[in-house]
Amino acid sequence: MEGLFAGLDVSTQSCKIVVIDLAEERTVHVDSVGYDEDLPHYNTSEGAVRGLEEGVSESDPRMWIEAVELLLQRLKEADISQEQIRCIAVSGQQHGLVALDGEGNLTRGRSKLWNDFSTSEECRLLTEAVGGEAAMIEEVGNTQRTGYTAPKILHMLRHEPQSYSQAATLFLVHNYINWYLTGGRSAGVSVMEPGDTSGMALWNPASRTWSKKVIEAIDPDLLRKLPPVEPSDRTIGSISPALADEHGFSPDCSIDAGSGDNMYGAVGTGNFEPGIVTVSLGTSGTAYSYIEEPYVDPTGEIAAFCDSTGHYLPLLCVSNMANGYNALLKQFGISHKEFDSIIERTKAGNGGKLLLPWYEGERTPDLPQASPVYFGFDLDEFGREPLCRAVLEGHVLNLYTGFCRMPVRPRAIHLTGGLANSPAWCQAIADIFEADTVPVQGEGAALGAAIHAAWVWHEESGNNYALKEVARPFVILDESQRKKPLAPNREAYRIQKRLYRALSDCLRGLEGEDPFSLRDELVQIS
After folding, report:
1. pLDDT tier, 306 (very low <50, low <70, confident <90, very high otherwise)
2. Per DSSP, which regions of 35-188 are E strands?
3. Which residues contact 337 (CB under 8 A, 6 or more apart)?
4. What is the number of structural domains in the chain?
């Protein structure tokens, strides 16, 4: 295998580039632009425009283009033969809506992001229009959630009808960057692909068709504004002559179809065969896995997505993960290392003390008005050690309880995100999920994009390399941090998992086991 290949990740807070060399089997260039620090004129905080109404999260799409331009300029100045880059793939934050008129101008100066929560009314209206949640899941494989794109489109139609009527093309984030790379206003390619598109809640990932009912509930003419959906494992064209000339690329450099950040996060963490699960530990938490047949969760809690290889990627997302942990560290003034030491001194199961970490509402389970619940604590038990153990176990149990709806039994969990290198988090996930757990080094989605670009380019060149073969040198597992489930913790965690589910069910008015009896059982073995 040979050639240089680049991956761009246009994420919420930053834009990254990774260039890999297949012949030398190494990453030769990594760079990033932080929007807040490097592009301060866009006035963002964590990538979103400051000062907007509560629940509104938006960015100027031109900021993403400027970040890409800056990275390409730095690439030209680096010690890299950019003219040898054969293909570029773009990873984009999912669900964001970009609206362009017929001349390529933005009809709305800002894009609503995945974490914009201002469209709950539109979610309700769409769900009612198709006949309820069950009917919606049948239509698009998912429920309507504020993060998805369909309610964003309806929101623009209802509140900014002129912006909507002027729009000739509605893009997702990575489609917009692809359009720019292939020529933009002059000859930019307007296409979508199944991975990112399946997160719009307009397109059914199982049937791979647009939902006529949902589209008509928004606007019968909406389909005219949506680009065609083409395969993920193909290129869509070549880099524009202007960009090739400006930044030193070969005019033959092709542009991969691209995909969402979760799809390329899977590739970048070695998650492209059955039984591998990626868990991302950031402000929010996600768990997803490659499967060969579509899976639609009848409750809608597990997102039904396609992946970037022609297969499927069921995904769980919880809103709360590192937020509770970071608040705890700040409250007690402890470091990450001190937290790990505290966990070593405490016992699995926490003596029946349990936290439901729904700090800012929760996405899974779908409880937007939820608040945290502390269960089984005596008045003198709100000290550092019990709370550290409760925060760790509560967050992992919340993720695990949602994950149980997936049609996957993990044989290995690959960790990524800010908390992935914590021995305490790694061990707790191994124990609770009962699977080997290991952190993955590297740049996640940007690396996955570069690997995907190499795989697609070689496929189209007649070299039928397996994706696993292309990825092997670049997906690096930190074996020094691999954790196996600890047998002494098994009994406590099996009871605690039942306790967490029982308490969650009880608070939501669902039938389930008695949490008080389960707590007594857990206390007796602690």
Report:
1. very high
2. 44-45, 48-49, 58-59, 85-92, 98-100, 111-112, 169-171
3. none
4. 2
User: Under the phi-then-psi rule, with left for phi > 0, alpha for psi from -120 to 50, and beta for the rest, what region is 509?
Assistant: left
Residue-wise pLDDT tens digits, 253-278: 999 999 999 999 999 999 998 999 99
CB 302 within 8 A of CB 401: no
Coil/strand/helix, residue 287: strand
pLDDT tens-digit series, residues 55-85: 899 999 999 999 999 999 999 999 899 999 9
- Which residue range forms the structural domain that includes residue 379? 271-439+486-526
Q: What pLDDT, in 10s, does the model give residues 317-376?
A: 998 998 899 999 999 999 999 999 999 999 999 999 999 999 988 889 988 788 999 999
Q: Residue 240: what pLDDT?
A: 97
279 close to 286: Cβ distance less than 8 angstroms = yes
d(CA 163, CA 151): 15
pLDDT, residue 369, reads 83
Domain at 211, CATH number: 3.30.420.40
Pair (128, 277) in one structural domain: no
Query: What is the CB neighbour count within 10 angstroms for residue 385?
Result: 13
Does 474 reside within a domain?
no
The helix (run of H) or strand (run of E) holding residue 455 is: helix 445-460
Q: Does residue 149 sit in the same domain as residue 213?
A: yes
Beta-carbon contacts of 520 under 8 Å, excluding residues fewer than 6 positions away, are 352
